[in-house]
Amino acid sequence: MGNKITGKVYVLGNNIDTDQIIPAEHLVYSLTDEEESKKYGHFALSSVPIDQAGLPNGGITFINGDNWQSEFSLIIGGSNFGCGSSREHAPFALQKAGVKAIVAESYARIFYRNSVDGGFLVPYESNEKLSDKFKTGDEYELDFENDTLKNLSTNNEYKLKNLGSVSEIVNAGGLFEYARKSGMIETSSFA
Amino acid sequence: MGMTITEKILAKSAGKDVVKPGENVWLNVDVLMTHDVCGPPTIGIWKREFGENAKIWDKDKLVIFPDHYIFTANKHANRNVNILREFAKEYEFENYYDVGTERYKGVCHIALAEEGYNIPGTVLFGTDSHTCTSGAFGMFATGVGNTDAAFILGTGKIWEKVPESLKFTFHGKMPEYLTAKDLILQILGDITTDGATYRAMEFDGEAVYSLSMNERMTLSNMAIEAGGMNGIIAADEVTEAYVKERTDKPYEILKSDDDAEYLAKYEYDVDKLEPIVAKPHSPDNRDTVKNVEGTQLTKCYIGSCTGGKITDFRFAAKLIAGNEVRVPTFVVPASTEVAKQLEIETHNGVSLKQIFEDAGCVIAQSSCAACLGGPDDTIGRAVDKDVVISTTNRNFPGRMGSKQSEVYLASPLSVAASAITGIITDPRNFL
Questions:
Q1: pLDDT for A113-136, tens place per residue?
Q2: Closest CA of chain A from B37, distance in Å
């Protein structure tokens, strides 16, 4: 992954659960079939109540029409992002839709693990509530090396929490890549 | 400094004498469980990563229960069950409980208990957030995603961060109008949906130990609704009796040390608690049933890993017996064993099944069914602006189907009382 990415942010509130991220009725689709798996992008965040979709004003759907990719590549969330089920389809759906990273105040454990171990996207934690510092559609610059997020629309920069020990897995690109790099899979002997 | 039961089990699994909260450890997994929603993608990742010669690390330690989308015409859902079937055949793997056979069980978390996979002192991972249910057996049980499961499938190992523990002690004798569901909804209101994120929830107290294994499972089951990594109850003679009836595998009873460290402790007197609901659209949106009494309903639902066990139907049948339901009421036994038990067990000489049928309930086949909405043809699914009271575990927007629907979570007693009247009703009115 490059050191910096830019794009537009999509802002959500607290407790965005996995049913809102990808409703259970869509979990039947293949994650490996290139064409079929686009459905996950298409239905990403489709169950977020419309008044909560794209804050501060709401009413902005994450995916337009028949598309499977979103114009937004960074999600700013509140606390407890990804709570609910264990479905790895949730970070997968967001990745499929083009999301590169999330910046939230906190995450539910399984969603966080899935994002990191599956290598789908980077789940950053913010030091403060950022959902009122960004408006949906604001241009951002995320610096992975310095753990900073800049709002290019206001020119304010925010320091994010360092990923800590999971950064090794994030940098490797996922759990399997990490395990291979450290010789775990071949030898089956774990540090 | 002493250790909590969770720390002791994780230390044992990691091959260490001591573990401390915050430490990352590699665990040796005793059982990996998966189902029809997450099994196929788990198998896909496992094959991709381990190649054509991918091996199951230990066939005895893998168990697969198709349970989510079973009785549906949805071709994609049926394809997923087929993938599991083919996998079981190709790898000559026995712990597979196929749909359409005598072996079919239903909801995985209940089936794990019934089939003897829940063993005190062991570590169980499952590709389902409600895997924490098994913690009722004094074991460490938690949910993971497909990638983690695929990693376990090939190696038998996974990393985990040792959690800090929260302790919830319930004192006193359970009143007849209260169930384990009320206790966990009470906790959820107190600590909210992220109050236990990355933490262990430990349940204790004479009220907890007065509960049957089924009721204890309800407590552990909803630990995830507070974000909990696991929800654990140290095993006692009730646990031992249940386990011995179902397996002769060895088990180890571990308990928290008296000087174990907890992040926080919560104490409750059960005789001061009331029947509780979680109002739309979050399991922590707590209120008393009394306060929302009279809310007009369009549907009642008794089922799922949380509220579809034999004890849940026993509670419900006690109230529904001799009455008729005023709104469509769905009875979905979590497992085929529970379904059989409904036919055998009686209340005042009438089988529980007969009681529900006579009352006009719709009795469905065992599966996760409408707890999580599911395909359009799922029985009991919330449609349009349905207002549902349900014994299930989540009431997020759209969870049971329609995004316009509203779901109240409550105990089987509260749901049964409400089914009889068609409006949310305090079960004490019928007891």
A1: 999 999 999 999 999 999 999 999
A2: 7
Predicted ipTM of the assembly: 0.93
| Alpha-carbon distances, residue B298 vs B67, B385, B398, B424, B427 (angstroms) | 26, 9, 16, 10, 18
pLDDT, one tens digit per residue, over B8-27 is: 999 999 999 999 999 999 99
- Beta-ladder partners of B362: B330
Beta-bridge partners for B332:
B303
Is B90 domain-assigned? yes
Mean pLDDT (chain B) is 97
Structural domain contains residue A23: yes
pLDDT at A185: 82
Q: Tell me if A173 is assigned to some domain.
A: no
Task: pLDDT band for A1, please (50, 70, 90 cuts).
Answer: low
CB B67 within 8 A of CB B368: yes
Number of domains in chain B: 2
pTM of the model: 0.96
CB contact under 8 A, A86 and B394: no
Task: Give the Cβ contact number of residue A47 at 10 Å.
Answer: 24
- Tell me what pLDDT residue B98 has: 98
Q: At A119, which CATH number? A: 3.20.19.10
CA distance A12 to A14: 7
Residue A104 is predicted with a pLDDT of 98
Could A176 and B396 be called an inter-chain contact, meaning their C-beta atoms sit closer than 8 Å? no
Q: Same domain for B56 and B99? A: yes
Tokens for B211?
């509960």
- Note whether A86 contacts B44, CB cutoff 8 Å: no
Residues of B with Cβ-Cβ distance to A28 under 8 angstroms: 37, 69, 74, 76-77, 79-80, 375
pLDDT value of position A2: 66
The DSSP output letter for B133 is: G
Chain B nearest-CA residue for A114: B145
| Residue A110 within any structural domain of the chain | yes
Does the structure show a pLDDT above 80 at A189? Answer: no
Q: A70-119, pLDDT tens digit by residue?
A: 999 999 999 999 999 999 999 999 999 999 999 999 999 999 999 999 99
CB-closest option in A23, A49, A188 to B155:
A188
Tokens 């994450």, located at residue:
A62
Q: Which residues of B touch A88 (CB under 8 A)?
A: 38, 41, 145-147
C-alpha distances out from residue B358 to A121, B91, B321, B325, B351, Å = 53, 46, 8, 9, 10
The range of the structural domain enclosing residue B367 comes to 276-429
Nearest to B63 by CA among B94, B101, B108, B33: B33
Residue B142 belongs to a domain: yes
Based on the domain organization, do B177 and B85 belong to the same domain? yes
**Which residues in chain B touch residue A85, judged by CB atoms under 8 angstroms apart?**
128-129, 143, 372
Q: How many other C-beta atoms are found inside a 10 Å radius of the C-beta of residue A23?
A: 22
pLDDT digit string (tens) for B32-62? 999 999 999 999 999 999 998 899 999 999 9
How big is the A-B interface in CB pairs under 8 Å? 136
Is A83 an 8 Å CB contact of chain B?
yes
